[in-house]
Structure formats: C-alpha cells, structure tokens
## 1
Amino acid sequence: MKRASIYITLLLLAFTGAMVTSALWTYKLSMQAAMGNLKTAATNMAVNLDFTLNNLGLRRYYFQKLVSSGDWEAVAFLALYNRDSEVLLHSNINLIGLRMKDPHIQRVFATGIPMDHFMTLGTGEKVYVLDYPLHYHREGKLRTEVLRIALHTYPAMGVVRKARFQLTLSLAATGVLWILTFLLIFYIRRSIRMERQLAEKERLALLGEMAAILAHEIRNPIGSIKGFAQLLMEKKEDDSPEREFLQTMVEECIRLEKLVRDLLHYAREERLRLSTFLLKELVEECVKQSEGQREDIKLAIEISDNLTITSDRDKLKQILLNLIQNSQEAMKQEGTLTIRAHEKGDKIVLEIQDQGKGMTPEVRERIFQPFFTTKSQGTGLGMAIVKKLTEQLEGQIHVESSYGQGSVFRLILPKKVSPQ
Ligand code: ADP
Ligand code: MG
C-alpha cells in the first residue's frame, strides 16, 4: 500500500503538473497575443495619424473629435508633445498648451524609436500606451514630435481573462484533486489497517479456541503426572537418586501448567466487567499475593486512599500481578519495588518501578512480543498479556529502563472505561 500511495502521488503530481503548466502556457501566450494586438492597433493608428497630421496640420479639435466619434473605440486618449514637453494637441482640449514632463516621452525623443508601456489613469484604469515619434516639415523646418496613443486594454485582454480563468480553474482543480487523493489514500490505509486488525482478532480467537481445547486436554494429564510424581517422591528415601528425577518431573509439570494457563489468558477474548473500586485496595491485594514469592523484596505503595477507578478489576489485577512478578524476577538481590499512582486529567498514571537488572534496548523493543523471553523457565507471554489487557482497558503502557539500573512500567489508564 505504501508503494501504491507513492505511485498514485507521483502520477497525480505529473498529471496536475502538466495541467497547470499547460494553463500557464496558454496564459502566457494569450498575454503575448493581447500585447501584440494592442501594439499593432496602436501602430496602425500612429501611422494613420502621422499621415493626416502631415497633411492637415495641427487642428485643435481634431483629437477630441476622433476620440468622441467612436470610430476608434479602444482609444482612451490621444496627445501630441513637442521636444519641450508642451502638449500640442490632446483629445482633452483643456490640456493643450500645458507642459507635461514625462520620462517615457523624453526617451522617445532621445532614441527616435517608438516605445510602449502601461500607465494608470486618474480614474484608476490601466491603459496601454504607445509613444510614437513623428518627423515632418513644418514652417520650413524638420521637426520631431511624439504622438501618444493610449488604448483601453479591456477588449484586447478578453482572451487573457479567459486564460486567467482557465489557470485559476486548473489550480483549484489541482487542489481539489490533491485533497481527494489524500483522503482516498487515508481511507484505504485505514480500512486495510482495520482489516488487518480484524484478521489478527480472528487469529487470536482461533488461537483461543485451540488453547482452550489444548488446556482441557493437557491440564488433566499434567495434573496426574505431577500428582503421581509427588506421590512417588514422598515414598522415596531422602537420599535416593531417583528423587531428583521426580523433582525435575514435578517442576517441569508446573512449568507446563503455567504455559497452558498463560496461553489461555493471552488468547481468551473476554468481555469487560466494569466496576468502580479503590485502586489502593486492589494494589494491596496484589502485593499481598506476590509478597510470599520473594521475602527479600520490599513492596512500597504510594497511592492515595480515596483514588477510585472504573475499570475491569480482574483484568487490572492480572496486569499488576504480571508486572510485579517480572519486577521481582528482575531483582537478583534485595531491594524495593514501588507502586505509585496519580491522577492526570481524566487519566490515572500507575507506575511500577523496580531496582532490578533493567533491559538492553534490544530486549526492551521485544518484551511485548508473544513468546519472547530471556528466562530459562519463562513463557514469554506475561508482557503480551499485559499489553493486550491494557489496550482492552483503553490504556497505554510505556517502559523506561536502563540496563543494570532497573525499570519503570508506566500505565496510563482512563479513570472511567467506557462501557462496551
Ligand atoms: P517471561 O516473564 O515469561 O520471560 P514476559 O513476557 O513476562 O515473559 O517478559 C518478557 C521479557 O521481558 C522477560 O523475559 C524479560 O527479559 C523482560 N522483562 C519484563 N519485565 C522486566 C523487568 N521488570 N525488568 C527487566 N526485564 C524485564
Ligand atoms: Mg513474566
């Protein structure tokens, strides 16, 4: 799925990239075409006017008439300047005779070639401007004047507006496509994950059934073997060499019984039975049950008397018993095992801290894997059970451990488990 997501993303990138690039190109070309059109129109007018002005001379109302006649509808204004920046003619006759310094016109006088640019009028409208040099004889002298033709850009820019619209549309489509694709990938991934979880659940259920059958079939024979071995052992003299063999038989039977029990616990899917109880009381119960196993280890409880929790009491007890047992087994010498809890928002943080041998990062990585154990007599199911039950109680478990210095198991449990 990861690879498929990458391919889909790349494909989308290529497709939307091509779409946006093509829209950009269209925009650029239409802009060039519009500019070309404006330039051609303005130059045609300039050539026309050059001819007429040469023949008719400067008539005061000429430009005004031209613009107001509507023959040249795109014209915003027309003006004619001499070298001293004086306005010789203008479509707004009030401006005739004024001096208007304009760097663009100065430049056309200096270079003698037509130049175009955009300018913004007093009305806020942006117009296209062509400054065109005219050379002609008047009063016996060769004169140069500059004709300014300002055109409304609106008609010529129609195609540009369309291209801009297309560009906006493809950008929006790109955005929508990206969002949709990510949503799709997200949902597909989620459904795959859920399918896997379901398959895992089914596998566990099957394992549970098998374990139950196995337990039923194995438990009784093991019980008999253990019982008879114990009986035989009692009958043997204390120094009989067979006693040792029988002792091994009993120990192995106990180990098998534990394995079957753990496997049953791990595989069994049980519904939650919720109740509200005092956390300290439960912890004390677990401590009492575990204390007998290692008298050299002091068990300390740091939990306030009235801290209550709504959860599955039996499951929480199983979690605690497993954690305490592991901690005890990790402590070779005497030491203290501390169990503390505090509230944090709507959660309870429950810590089990030991002064045992700790774990290397490699071991720490694997402790929740079923059947992972570093002990010769271990089943490797304890922590897998803890993890499974914690998740069933809507909690999380975190481990901090440094090799040789002990470990802390931190359970984060909801104060109230939601009823199923
Ligand atoms: P088992 O106890 O049968 O080995 P568990 O699933 O309970 O199986 O634990 C798996 C492994 O995790 C242990 O073998 C041990 O290496 C490591 N482990 C668990 N708890 C502790 C602890 N408190 N200190 C050090 N190592 C631990
Ligand atoms: Mg264990």
## 2
Amino acid sequence: MTLPPLVAPAPELTVDEIRRYSRHLIIPDVGVEGQKRLKNAKVLCVGAGGLGSPALMYLAAAGVGTLGVIDFDVVDESNLQRQVIHGQDDIGRPKVESARDAVARINPYVNFRVHNTSLTRDNVMEIFADYDLIVDGTDNFATRYMVNDACVLLGKPYVWGSIYRFDGQASVFWAEHGPCYRCLYPEPPPPGMVPSCAEGGVLGVLCASIGSIQVTEAIKLITGIGEPLVGRVMIYDALEMTYRSIKVRKDPACPLCGENPTITELIDYEEFCGVISDEAAEAARDSTITATELKEWMDTGKDFLLVDVREPAEYEIVRIPGSVLIPKGEILSGEALSRLPQDRQIVLHCKSGARSAEALAALKAAGFRDAVHVQGGVLAWVNQVDPSLPTY
Ligand code: ZN
C-alpha cells in the first residue's frame, strides 16, 4: 500500500538548505519536492529518552522544519548508556533543554518546540493538534494507549516503537488506513507483568535500530514514498540479527477505530492500565495469586482473611463471598492495621489488582510478610470463577 504525502511542500528551499540537504535532493524519490515537504512538516516526539534521542537527532538532521518534544524528566547518569542526545554535562538538566541544545548543534534551521511537562489527558489533544505526525517513544502502557487514542480521535498517524533487552518492535498506526494499537493489543498487560527497561534492562544500541525505523517511517509518510508500516509490525531480534514483519489487520470490533466504537473520548489511562508504584510491583512480585487459586484456597478450607480494599460503593455493586471491606486508604494510613489478625494469612483484592498491590506493599512494610493479593481483582473473579456476578 502506498499513501499520498502527509505534508504539502514548503514554498522554497534557501541556498543554504539546498547545500545542506544535497544528498537528499539527488535521490529521485525525495528530490526538492520531498525536501520541501520535510521543511513544512511538524513532528512531535513523545519522550526524549531511548527512542526519542535518535529520532530527534535524525529528524532534525533530515530537515524536518518544526520538531517538538514533550518530556518532564531530567537527565540521569543511567540514561547516558542509550539516550545519546544527552551528554555528561547534561546530568540534572531537563531532557527537553538538553535535546533543544543538541538539535541546535545538528541543524540550526529547525524550529524546535519544547513541552517541558508530562503528557496528560488534559493536554494531549491540544498539544497533538499542532502537529502532522507523532513519534511515540514512551516506555509505559498508560501513555502508549493515550497516544494511540488521541491520534485516532484526531485522525493523525503515529509511529510507534518499543524496546526491551535485545528485542524491538515498530509500526505505523493510522486508523484511517489501517489498524490502531488497540486492534493489536486490546488489553494492557496486568500491572507488574511486563517489566520495564528500568527493571529488565535494554541494550543501548537497540534504541538506534528501532529509532531509525521510526524516523524512516516518518520521512516516508511525510514525503509519500515507499510502503509505510501501516498494517504491519516490524519485529527486530538483535541476537539473531533478524527483522521480520507481521501483518496486523484492523479489528472490526476495536472499541476505538472499529465499526461501532464505544470509546469516543479519552479515558483514565492509569486506571485502565492499573498503574502501580515500584514498591507495589516489588511487593506483588512473589505474592500474587490468581482468582482461580483463591477459589481453590476457599474450597480446600485454607485459613485466611480476604480483605477487599475498594470503596463501599464498589463493595455494594459486587463482592467476593467472605470478603471484609477495608478501603485502601485505611491501610495506607495505618489506621486499619490494628484490626488485622497477626495469626492468619491476609489476602487482599480490589477491582483490577492495582490498589491491592499498593495496599500489599504497605502491609508487607508493616510486617505482614505472608500477605498476598489477587491478580486482576474482583473482575478476574467474575471472569474466571463466577460469571453470574456483575462487573462495573
Ligand atoms: Zn483499533
């Protein structure tokens, strides 16, 4: 599938620009016309980290006229192994400022826009609206789904990339012409199940491999050349040194871009992805049971106290038999600790497993060493054990 150019050409290139971009201009498929499209293009990089670093540098060098970056973080020493847009002297500086200086050194003709903030449900639509194309270099699922949803709702294409250890993936999601990220991954993984690069590590140079695919796709979309990665996911294995692409179809039942969309505005992505703190993920690592295991514990008469850490209104809607309600806040404040038995194992659950993981971290810190929580919460209980109960 070929697609028309995303961006109209700028009126002209200056003499300096013709000199600078001459190696592009003599490629027939790019030419002066393609370079003028790059000059007129507005591209936003979400994140100035592992993928954002090579993406920003090559987008700037390629002559993308307006380049934006959004990041709220500061440069840490542990970033430098892969985030090559930052240097030793930048440690402690906002990443967007470090990136701005690096881009200015690479190409002074780039109009660089800095968004020194975190991307949220309240600002994402307004920020994205100003750009033709988004390059997603985020490392967490909540932001990833938010980027996808905002792009679909705004009708914009975006280039997605993901890295872990020796493996990387990239694709172009553009609901008008192919699937979106939700068509590929309808549900986020359970919180704490997929380790981040901070937990599992990443080979630094992998960022260059995937970041360069993202920039290549951005240039192809802007200038309308080649076969874009729409409807395909590129999978790179650095150890095997293989690239393979798999076809991904638009899901007619996709709640966002399918035939009968049920998602028509942005949602609460932290809630959707069950985002939990590092402490909660650590506490849950070896202390998580499934809803099916909980049922087995009940059936075999195991002695434990099942504590529901949701709010009273939720407890009214649906509850697991035998559970007692102690809202998470009372556990985190320490207020409820004296009411908990020291001589019985405690099993925590909530709606989806995020709040119970936070409460679990607090209980472990208070000395309840054998406490566990239920993965997926009451929703998993309904799904796996008792589908006759309501969900919400
Ligand atoms: Zn979709």
## 3
Amino acid sequence: MLILRVAVALPLRRYFDYLPKVGLNREQFKIGVRLKVPFGPRTMLGILIEIVDQASVEEHRLKPIIDVLDSEPLFSALDLKLLCWVSHYYHHPIGDVLSTALPSKLRKGEKAKLKGEKRWQLTELGAKKAIEGLSKQAKRQIQILELLQQHPTGLSSAEIQQQLGNCQPAIKALQKKACLQAYDCYIPPTVTDKVEAPFALQARQQQAVTAILSSLDKFQCFLLDGVTGSGKTEVYLHIVAKVIELGLQALILVPEIGLTPQLLGRFQRRFQQPIAALHSGLSDQERLTAWMMAKQGKASIVIGTRSAVFVPLQSAGVFIVDEEHDISFKQQEGLRYSARDIAIKRAHQHNIPIILGSATPSLESMHNANKQKYQYLHLPKRAGNAKPPEIELLDMKQHPMKNGFSTALLKTIAQHLGRDEQVLLFLNRRGYAPRLICRECGWLADCPQCDAHMTLHHQLRKLSCHHCGFEQKIPRTCPQCESLQLVMLGQGTERIEETLTKLFPNNNVARIDRDTTRKKGVFEQQLKDIHANKIQLLIGTQMLAKGHHFPNVTLVGILDADQGLLGVDFRSAERLAQLILQVAGRAGREQKIGKVLIQTYYAYHSFWDSLLYQGYHRFCELALEERQQAQFPPFAVQALLRAESTEQPFPMDFLNQARYLAEQYAIAGIEYLGPVPSPMERRGGWYRAQLLVQAKERRTLHQLLAHWIIALEKMKKYKVRWSIDIDPLEMF
Ligand code: ADP
Ligand code: ZN
Ligand code: ZN
C-alpha cells in the first residue's frame, strides 16, 4: 500500500494522507514535490512530505490526489527537515510554514521553471574575427561582431536588431561559423562600469577571514563585532570570493530593502556575475526567477531580506546575517519567526559556517559569544583613515530649547554648514506634531479606535493615527467647546523640516521618512542628491539610521533620545543603545572627523555613563548582569500568548482560562507573567491582552506548549483571535 503524507497549504497542525492517482508509478512521487489534492469541496496545494505504508485514518476514507505538479522536488530532504523544524519550534502549522517558504507563483501552482532570455556572445573565434574581419561581402556580420565586442555580457536578438536593423540571417550565419554562441540569461546583467578590486586586508580583518576560512567545511557560528566602517563587508566579500571559488553558494541576509541596493552594488562591482536578490520590491515573476536561480545553483550569491532564509540552495557554502541585531529579522505576524535564528539552525543542518555581523550585536549573541557558543571576532577600529566620531550629550534642562532644538545644537549645525559639510538630524517621529490640544478645555485629538493620540500632518491636512491608519480632517474649532484655541504640541520630522528651512534659508533640506518616500524612486533620488551634495541638511526617521554611507556628513544630531530611555519593554535600553550607535555611525566615515550631539532631559541617567564613556561592550556587560538578576532572556526563554477581540472582556477571560489550563499540567519550572491588558489596550478597534510564559530551559517551555496549544485550539467559546510568539522581541 502506497500512502502519500501531505502538508496541505492550510493553517492546520497536521499532515493529511492521500492515495496515489491511478496511472502514476512510485517514481513519480518524489518527496518535496507539489501535489494537487482534494480537500473537502476544494482543491488545495500540498507538499509531499513522506511516503508511508499505513494510513493514519481508515483506508476507505482516503482519497486519491488530483495531480503531481513537479517532476523534481522543490525542496530537498534537508530543506524539508528545516521547514518541519520551524513548524515544531514555533508551534506553527506546517502548511503555513510551507506557504511562507514558497514564492507566490509556486504557491498558486504555476510551473517551477526558469524563464530565460536568449543572449548572443562572441566565441573565441568570433572575437578574433571581429578584429581580423570576415570577407568583404559579409558587412552585416562584421557589424554584429563589432557590436558584440563592446558587450561582453552579450545582447539579445532584439537588442542587436534595435541597433542594426533586421539581421536574423546574419546571426544564423555567424552561429554556423561558430563565431557566436547563445546562452540563457535569467537576470539581465547589470552594467557595472566599475569593477572593484579587493582591499588588502588589515590585520584584524585578516584574522577574522582566516578564522572563518578554516571552518568552511563545518558548522561554526561567528559573531563579527565591528564598529560601523570597520570593514565587516570587506570580510564578507573575501569569504564569499573563496566560497564561489569552491563552487558553492553564499546566502546573505540583510534587514531591509533600503540596505539592499548599496550592499548589492558592492557585491556586483566585486563579483561580475549574476546575483539573486530577494526582497519585497520584486514582482512575482522576478521573485520566482531569483528563487529558481538560487535553487538550481545558477546564482552563487543570494542576497535577501527575512524570508530569503527559506530559499533552497543547490550547494550552500556560507550564510551571512548582516546587522544581526536588527529586529526586522523577526516577523511580527503569522509565522513569527526569526530569520537569524533559523539561519543558524540551517547552517547547522548543512554543516557550514555562519557569520553574524553587527556594530552593535544583540545581547543574545553577546551572551552566546561569552559562553563560547559563538566564535567572537572583533574589528575595533574603522578601516582606512576614518576616526570614530566624538559623542556628546546636550542636557536639555540646561540649554534653552526652541522648536525642538537647543541653542547649542543650532550653533554647531551652523558651524558644520559653514564648512560645506552635511548635517544629519534624527527624530523617530514622523508627521508635523504628535498632539493637537485645545488650550481652553484640554481636549486632545485621540484616535477613536486606539488608546493613542492622533498625529497632525500639515501637508496632508490630516490627523492620522500611526497605529491603525485612521485618518480625519484637522478640525478648525475644538469639537468639545468650539474654541479656536487649538494648538499643536511637540515635534515631528515635518515640523523640524519647516524649522530648518526657516533657520537656514541658504541650505537645502531633505526629509526622509515613510511619508516622503512613499512614492517609488523618491528615496533613491534623495540618496543621489545627498551624495551629489545638493542637500546639506537631512532630517529623517530610522530609515536613515542604517547602512547608508554619507561621506560628507560630519554632524549627527539626535533630537530626542528620551523616547527610548523611558520605554516599557525590558529591551528598550538595548534598542536605544543600538540605534544611537547606528545613527552615530553615519558621521564622518571618511577623512573628516564626525561629531554626534544627543539631546536629552536625562543626562545623568546611568545609561549614558555606560554607553558613552565606557562603550558598547561595557553597556552590554551591565545590561546582561541586569537581565540575569531579573531572569530575563537570554537567561530565560519566553513565549507570549496574545489575544484580541472587539469586546473588552474576552481577551482577559480567554487568557485567564489559558493560564488555568496550563497550570493543570503542573510542569515544574514554568513562570507566568499575567495575563495583563497590552500596554496599548485598544488598537484599531480591537482590545488586546497578553500572557507571558517563561522558563529557564527551552525544553520545559516546549513541553508545555506542545500540550497547551492543542488545548487552546479547542477553546472556541471565547470569541478571540490569539497567537503564540516564541522568543518574542516586542512586548505589546
Ligand atoms: P562595515 O561593513 O563594517 O561598515 P565596510 O566594509 O563597508 O565596513 O568598510 C568601510 C570603509 O572602509 C569602506 O569604504 C571600505 O571600502 C573601506 N575598507 C574596508 N576594508 C579596508 C581595507 N582593508 N583597507 C582600506 N580600506 C578598507
Ligand atoms: Zn476645547
Ligand atoms: Zn488608531
């Protein structure tokens, strides 16, 4: 008896058994192919996980599959093992995990085929003939040879005809003479005029490269801790060069789309070969192409954001996670996975090294390096001649403030502008003002759907809620007392931009946040203008904090550091430290020394003392000590059960019952924190609450979750949506 065990692309925590279709033989059922299966009245897509000889239900209830979609598996046995591990570790339905891992075209059942374009290139003989010339009659052919000589990556027939007119017969003739050869091109070659040669490594870089190269044939996790500009990317490039030389592939994960073009450009200039880039800006077809190129080994370099961690590879050689501390590696909805953590597991399964790089490693990774679970590699100094920036606090209690600026900051900005240098200002709050308030009766513009204030957007003439997207017109009079005395309180990037334009009329200001960059191509243009020095003052949100390299920025101002200092989450201090050092890393990356000024009302907070005067490492030591005392991660493992409902009592009722159930299992070593309403209880019209579960050992927590989740699924009488978040990074 041949029974097909299938993971159906549905959020269900189990496999389903099917019979083969009549007329197909065993060889056609390869593990990892897609199948079309009947599911109730519907037809669904599934992946063949296993072939067994005994069904898990009575055999007369089994139905035959409808079709086999692939002749070759989409996922190798190792890939499937990873996906099953993900499902198990995150307690998430396997069908959903598979859907996350597949590009949408494959999820919809389209053919797993690489669509290429035929391009013509000169053969060696053709190159010679292009110089020596053919016979006089073959004028067309000579033109083609000469044209192709200028295009080493080749041209398509259409491109040739565009330049020379109809020449199909001439192409045919040249092919016959073995002067031309055709190849299938999947990603149009990017025209990189500049080829970048590798740098001679500095001593510390060399040490890092040597250490990693000596582990190419085994699993080892490296933490590459190097300040911004210390040459981490150069280390990656050296490792990747070696990996390609060995005929293997490198998978590089980056946090955000904003980072991808720069890093991508760097890899393209260094390695003149196709790179499969996977990020959210791709069309479905482009995504499929990149995915297939990675899978078939046609791209030796794969660079992508979070979900690229699932891309199948033909021969993995190394994994790199750049900016490993970045929380965008964690998906915050659906399958709440950490791409960094999965990458480590995957490297382990493939028995290859993985490099976690950051200027501000996460406390988790620092802890693992301390325990020597990770091998620690340190690049303490900037590469080249660049010096580290000077960082200074501006105590806002002592400096008079106006429109969000202290006089001291304004004076320094003027100095830097006077030297024709650029200034970057950072404020993590978009919009014009975070509050609209009535001076007479105290009315405040609140979101009707959230426990939050509405932000005023001047240009858009709107009040907008940044939590649920609700928008309304700006009222002219107070809705409560009809007074005209409505005032805008606080500063957002839009207002700062206005102030800067007034104060520095001879300089150009650019604002970079989600509002200004919504239109495609705007961000790229702004970056170009900054590089061309057309802009002298930049104001931006965290979009500006990462990855970008602005050689002429010598002053960075952090307008309000207190936003993070007073955060409710136990990770707030870590996040703030990382953000400040990342922003600071934008200053003075080349010849000129950079300066960073931080405005705060809490200049005497111990946070500053450790971070600024003793450094990030000392900060980490102290923060880890605190975490250990409080028994928080990485000294404990956590899972967060969230529930939400449109009716207020349900989430808490559900979670109270959930806690009661969990306690019945009497598993020793589990601690419950809550349930409590979420810090912002109402959001987008939903009431939210959460229950944090914690244990010292992952095994203990896992044991609880395995039983508990099944029980939770049966608790239908509470009208809530709930989710489980393993290793949660955000507590709201
Ligand atoms: P990171 O990735 O740590 O921010 P990069 O690799 O981008 O650092 O290097 C920062 C700058 O230093 C780049 O402009 C790079 O070209 C330069 N650089 C890196 N390594 C070297 C080296 N060994 N010698 C000279 N310049 C280097
Ligand atoms: Zn009023
Ligand atoms: Zn809202």
